[in-house]
Amino acid sequence: MFYAFVWCSMRGEETHAAKRVAELRREIEKHNRLYYEEAAPTISDRDYDRLYKELVDLEAEFPNLVTPDSPTQRVGGTPLQAFAQIEHRVPMLSLDNTYSEDEIANFYKRITRLLPDETIPVVIEPKVDGVAVSLMYENGHLKYAATRGDGSVGDDITGNVKTIRSVPQQLRGGAPKVFEVRGEAFLDKDGFKKLNKERETAGLPLFANPRNAAAGSLKHLDPKIVARRPLGIVFYGTGATEGAGVDLHSEVFPLFKKLGLPTHEHWWLADSVEKILDAIRKLDRVRKDFRYETDGAVIKVDALVQRERLGFTAKSPRWAIAYKYAAERLETKLLDIKVQVGRTGILTPVAMLEPVVVSGSTVSRATLHNEDEIKRKDIRIGDKVVIEKAGEVIPAVVEVVKSQRPREAKTFDFFKHIHGKCPVCGGSIRRDPQFVAWRCENLQCPAQTTRRVEFFAARGALDIEGIGGIVADKLVERGLVREPLDLFDLKTEQLAKLNLGTDEAPRVFGEKNTAKAIKAIERARALPLSRWLYALAIPEVGKITAIQLARFHDKIDNVAHSELLRDVLAYHEAAKSERGEIAERLIKSGFAERSKSKADKDRAIVTEVGPVVAKSVLDFLGSAAGKKILQRMKQLGIEPRSEKVSAKKAEELPLAGKTFVLTGTLPSMTREEATGKIEALGGHVTSSVSNKTDYLLAGAEPGSKLDKAKELGVRIIDDAEFRKML
User: Fold this and answer.
1) Alpha-carbon dihedral sign for residues 525, 526, 527, 528
2) Among residues 55, 435, 531, 599, which one has the fewest Cβ atoms lying within 10 Å of its Cβ?
3) What are φ and ψ of residue 381, in 5° steps?
4) Does pTM surpass 0.70?
5) What domains are defined for the chain?
6) Among all residues, which ones are annotated catalytic?
């Protein structure tokens, strides 16, 4: 009986752990996407690391829960489809990191245990808060540059990196035959302030911090714009090399200087825990004077032969670790709490603070996340609070200084504070349990309109240049736009005269900005269905879901009346005995496949989208507001079509079964447009050249894929031949 009780208890713990592991993975994947793909993180590094560590600990305690696709088993970041991809000759792994000096001591003790009776010198160097990049030099000439990507394959950013003045295109002196150098691209502190000032003047959304600005710059498709941004690179290591003649990491820094590569000015050698910690503290004292942001120190074993013997885990090298400095925290008074309304109607509480200087900038507002967070931390108006600004995101209230709580401090009741209605439009609100938040139910709420217009025009949506931030605010405020589709009715003279300032201090949008915006608005009419499904801000529909839906529906009306989505709902609502016929229909259409789970293997299926997404899409497009959107699109002559085809139709198309790889810059279209056209004709686009590749589409400044294609005898076509083929 006792053993049965223990076994049941353990099973119960594992079930609970499995639920939490699933939640953590979803949360971490979301933040990975925001950080690596959209350069728009919403939490600090410290909060991300807490989530990650909790997942690591749970997987260590319950090994059965470890899966190959867990964030702990791979490096984050998917290459963007708008760029060609480059396969790293040596993987770019991320480092384990810590905020604890004790864990640094444990790291050094661990490597000395693995290599007993050896002296193990380590190098301590700054951790630049930028974007990881890899540059390949062959015979001293810059061949290509790539982002980290997923650690194995990154984005080809050669054109953008060539615009950075500090990057030599030809190395000085006797350069090694093959020399892959790795570093961090950054935007210097002064340049960041200047860039944001220019963006504010132009009515564009501001970058949250220099790292976001650097990431956004490197991922820009126009190198001319990148060239206008004050980017720099600090090189800190090597990847694949031939003839470098370097046996110690400490020898890399003088070699970089000799070859003309910018590198660290400050670094230390240490061979004991005490010396390592002393170097970390010295770095902390001097790093504020660097022209770029730093957020920690990196500790690396110096001897390459020792690194080889120490080896790697699945995700990180055992011979290195990053120590992150604690974010600056300061105390200030919480004067009031205001509630903002986001594009999806979610109400977010914001702390109004007594202004205080944190990390070099004056802070008067901080996020409070949601009602539950306020209750959990017992935050009251009038409290003395601790705020933290880690540099990545807007400041957050960390905790209350309860020892200094004034008697008059008021408990915050979310519902009563806003009198039970939306603070912007006065419409009804409801508690959304899924998002632990209150939501305004009025789709015509001006606050939602502004955010929806901004989202609608964002690069990942319809990419309407210049319609964001203050421009979206003013278009709604001046009554020129009541919903996103009103952008297509804007006249040139209206937009050119739009006052982005005040009546007392007017500042017009201007003819030059207007010409770009109008051109982008017209271009948006022809964008594919997937981009439109994402731009409409349908709840539960992100970029990937939008692409999945567009693969199986020719136009937006088909999505609104989708039998596939109705079948997904019907399957999940039906009794087990009645699911068979629906499952067969979904499998036949290609929208589902049989589950590989051992349980219920005869009937269980996995669908392209789940019942929550299916219901959300059908409800949104079937609502009065959704029908109005579809009707308005028809009136405007906007009928987005899918650029994808189902497997059933693909075999009948002219490029059916043909595999393409893209490299270089095409003069007539973007990489994303070329991919869409290939797939629309039944072809398939992959990221790397192999024996199975039929065509290499090569534009200007092709990367290493061109050499590989020649080596394998793959047919190489240029832009003109490709257009003729289409």
Assistant:
1) positive
2) 599
3) -65, 130
4) no
5) 2-73 (1.10.287.610), 85-324 (3.30.470.30), 330-437 (2.40.50.140), 446-527 (1.10.150.20), 530-635 (1.10.150.20), 647-725 (3.40.50.10190)
6) 127
